[in-house]
Amino acid sequence: MLTKTRILVLRCTPYGEHAIVARFFTRELGAYSYMLHGIRSKKSRITPAMLHPMALMEAEVYHRPDSDLQRVSEMQLLPYGRGGYGTAEQLLGSGLIAEILAQAVHDHDPQPDLFDWLVDRMEALMGVGTTAELVLAILTDLSGWLGFSVDATTYQPGSRLSFADGVFITPELLSHNADATVHHSGNDPNMVSTHERGGLGSKQDYADPQSSFEMAFYLSNNAWPDHFRCTKTYLQAVYGLYARQLPSFRIPRSHPMFCSLVLK
């Protein structure tokens, strides 16, 4: 069946000499993999560069519900804002979001409201000069769309976010609960980890107090506190939330470059 839909690009993998296997998050159909023949040839109107992470496109696809690999009839790029591909920082932020989204969305599960929210957020991202804050805001808000939102009303000064439950735990409960005992990672007091994951990062149980405050403040006020500085520690706290809820979660490959170029 030929279906017209808008798509967000999640990732692309070269296949053979001229083809690409792409995973798209579509508005009407959900997440599917697509075979794009001839896209790496000189005659193709759609180039691989156009298929950057979170690129928005309109497509006609041959959809078969019983197939895991679909085909594309036509595609057209729908530029954000004033067009173009965005700055290097914006593209890195888009890549980080796309990698996490690719791990989080279920195949074949249409979520049009989530799709529209993501398009709106990407429009905003491509129009701002400070990328880091908005990327972390998007990743924080995205958890709610995926079903494991944080209850900011449980926050108290000094408490830590429990990634397992999405609530903030007071220092008193932490100190009296043997099951909540955590171990500091290395010599960094801000880093709390219990399990290493394949050398790609750590799986955490709780966010550190500063990150917990920042997350609670943002979720309650939809704005960062005046003294907020986007840090690796806060990003690690967001990863910890995803890791506890998504069993196969891995730290995005774009994380190191995002930290070095975007997080100041």
Beta-strand share of residues: 15-25%
Low-confidence stretches: 180-203
Largest sheet: 5 strands, mixed, barrel
N-end to C-end Cα span: 48 Å
List the quaternary state of the chains: single chain
- What is the N-to-C order of secondary-structure elements (H for helix, E for strand)? EEEEEHHHEEHEEEEHHH
Q: What number is the mean pLDDT?
A: 85
User: What class, by secondary structure content?
Assistant: alpha+beta
Shape: elongated
With strands numbered from the N-terminus, the spatial order across the biggest sheet is: 1-2-3-5-4
- Report the C-alpha radius of gyration, rounded: 20 Å
Total beta strands: 11
Count of helical stretches: 7
State the share of residues found in helices, binned by percent. Answer: 25-40%
- Tally of discrete structural domains: 2
Give the SSE layout:
Blueprint: E1 2-15, E2 19-26, E3 30-36, E4 56-62, E5 69-77, H1 88-104, H2 112-125, H3 131-145, E6 160-162, E7 167-169, H4 171-176, E8 183-184, E9 192-193, E10 195-196, E11 202-203, H5 209-221, H6 232-245, H7 255-261
Parallel strand pairs: 3-5
Antiparallel strand pairs: 1-2, 1-4, 2-3, 4-5, 6-7, 8-9, 10-11
Structure, briefly:
The chain folds into 2 domains: 2-124, Beta Barrel (OB fold (Dihydrolipoamide Acetyltransferase, E2P)); 130-261, no CATH class. It has 7 helices and 11 strands. The chain has helices at residues 88-104, 112-125, 131-145, 171-176, 209-221, 232-245, 255-261; strands spanning 2-15, 19-26, 30-36, 56-62, 69-77, 160-162, 167-169, 183-184, 192-193, 195-196, 202-203.
